[in-house]
Design a protein that fits this description.
By secondary structure, the chain is mainly β. The chain has one domain: Jelly Rolls, CATH 2.60.120. The chain has 1 helix and 10 strands. The strands form 2 sheets. Strands 1, 2, 4, 7, 8 and 10 form a 6-stranded mixed β-sheet that branches. Strand 5 and strand 6 form a beta hairpin. The protein is elongated, with a radius of gyration of 14 Å. The relative contact order is 0.38. The N terminus is likely disordered.
Length: about 130
């Protein structure tokens, strides 16, 4: 099996957020496994007012075999708010990283949306880097 590739979505998709201020240290890292047959959306983390999302990485550990399989990270009503389908390639092993720097203005739930497009295989992990805004 070839070694996984590491992608920075700013170069892959031409976007993905602003700079992280120096005083915004990562104080919590959460990981969430998923697969082609996970019920979607998958609730990742409940964000409190003032919480900041400093980074999101989708790690594809087994490639999806659906031609148009897609993964997005967002919230209810905005499924691709923090990472859109052009910022990762579920059909290729690799780490797809985004640095959105998003601060929650209300209590809300961050979600992963899995569209397997007929896949019979595929799995990975979502890593969310947070600052609780204390």
């Amino acid at each position: 099996m070839p070694a996984p590739r590491i992608y920075n979505v700013q170069s892959l998709a031409g976007g993905g957020g602003g700079s992280i201020p120096v005083d915004q240290a990562i104080d919590e890292i959460k990981t969430y496994p998923f697969s082609f047959n996970s019920p979607s959306p998958i609730n990742l983390v409940a964000l409190e007012v003032g919480s900041r999302v400093l980074g999101i990485t989708i790690k594809i550990t087994e490639s999806f075999n659906g031609t148009n399989a897609s993964l997005t990270v967002g919230k209810a009503g905005q499924p691709d708010f923090l990472m859109n389908a052009n910022q990762n390639i579920p059909q290729e092993l690799g780490d797809y990283a985004s640095n959105p720097y998003y601060m929650a203005g209300v209590v809300e739930t961050l979600q992963l949306f899995v569209s397997p497009d007929g896949s019979t295989q595929g799995q990975g992990v979502v890593v969310v880097k947070l600052n609780k805004g204390d």
